[in-house]
Amino acid sequence: MSNENTQVRTATYLADPADVHRVLLLYSGGLDTSVMLKWIQDEYEAEVVALTVNLGQPGEDYEVVKGKARQLGAVDAFVVDAREEFARDYVAPAIKANAIYGLGYPLFTALGRPLIAKLAVEYAREHGCDTIAHGCTGKGNDQVRIEATIATLAPELKVIAPVRSWKMGRDEEVAYARANGIPVKGGTEAAPYSIDDNLWGRSSEGRWIEDLTVAPHDDVFQLVTRPELAPDEPETVEIEFEAGVPVGLGGERLALVELLERVAQLGMKHGVVIVDHIEDRIVGLKVRDIYEVPAAAILLPAHAELERLVGTIHQNQFKTQLDQRWAYLVYAGLWWEPLRANIDAYMESANANVTGKIGVKLFKGSARVVTRESPYAVYDAQLATFSESGGLFSQEASPGFIELWSLQSRMAWQVRGGR
Ligand code: ARG
């Protein structure tokens, strides 16, 4: 048997095959985890309980996925709708932290993994499983996020990651699937893109994406309309925020999941937005991802704009540093690290007054803030105007300020002989 665990157990949380009796499998219904469902029963002579987590993946039929798990021999199969928890406890904090990794990845997968793994722990405990299995490879970030979560929350549970060790390529997997009566979605000919999605975005990897010299093929975009095909008429949406969380759209109050889904619909229609991203993975590799992020590309800039309007210059300069730190911790699989919770406490405080409305104009792939409104704006049109200053600000005082403000710079210039 080519299992990593029969060789050297390189981590204490990995399962010893002798102790694997009942496995909670994180099941997507795709080829890898379907083959795995069968393979675990055969290799370990273990029972499998399948768990599928709904984080708002568009177009997924969860009844079909559940039926497939049963058909492949799962002793139990569960689908949990975690959209609300995901939106409230993972996406909302990300919005408050303006969370972007690299040059445009809004972290949808990175936010989803700790929740999926937390649910795996809950279901494993509830259903008497000793081991959790997942379908991540040994080269990606997701293995880190999932296993770090399990090892943190449930030291008594063990992990198996068959894709990391079974050394089957796609052809062998397809052959295994055929031999075991496992239906292969979308046919067996072409290797599909590797997709991950939820209500905060969608990523594609693999195939030509790995060739950095190849510009995106049109067929990769299954969510966002290509900007060149988007409507010729722009559309402006008004988003209302309360304490940093979006609560209304176009004057209508909405629960967060529905709001995220509705904003995503608008973004998809207007080609907002496609990100072609080279990324530094946790494990050292660089990877290219094609991201489609219709909701995030509208809500993150809207939030950031409102936050900057109500924040002072000092708050605004400081927060970008914490935002970056938060995003990296989450990207890097350290959701349960106490520093993340510490920073979240700051985020809550910094967002207390992030209340108001932001208008965003959508047009052929761009989302541009065009209007702002907040009772807490640190802004006074009277002060900003060039004509009358209104009493809070004396233009006569400015030269005195400039003299002191430039004092050290002027002195240094003199001392250094005008260089
Ligand atoms: N590069 C992104 C990340 O690390 C997306 C990963 C998508 N995961 C996947 N299994 N296809 O978060």
What report would you give on this structure?
There is one protein chain. With 419 residues, the protein is an alpha/beta fold. 39% of the residues lie in helices and 19% in strands. The chain has 14 helices and 14 strands. Strand 11 (274-280) and strand 12 (286-292) form a beta hairpin. Helix 3 (83-96) packs antiparallel against helix 4, helix 4 runs parallel beside helix 5 and helix 10 runs antiparallel to helix 11. Arginine (ARG) binds at residues 109-110, 140-142, 194, 196, 203, 205, 279, 289. The site of arginine has 11 residues, from helix 4, strand 6 and strand 7.
Task: Please describe the structure with a list of short key phrases separated by commas or semicolons.
14 helices; elongated; about 425 residues; single chain; 5-stranded antiparallel beta sheet; binds arginine; 5-stranded parallel beta sheet; alpha/beta
N-to-C span: 72 Å
Order of helices and strands: EHEHEHHEHEHHEEEEEHEEHHHEEHHH
In DSSP terms, counting alpha (H) and pi (I) runs of 4 or more, how many helices? Answer: 14
Query: What is the helix fraction of residues, given as a range?
Result: 25-40%
Secondary structural class: alpha/beta
State the low-pLDDT regions, or none: none
What percent of residues are in strands? Answer: 15-25%
Strand runs, count: 14
Q: Mind summarizing the main beta sheet?
A: 5 strands, parallel
Strand order within the widest sheet? 3-2-1-4-5
Q: How would you describe the shape?
A: elongated
Mean pLDDT: 95
* Ligand set: arginine
From the alpha carbons, calculate the radius of gyration and give it in angstroms: 25 Å
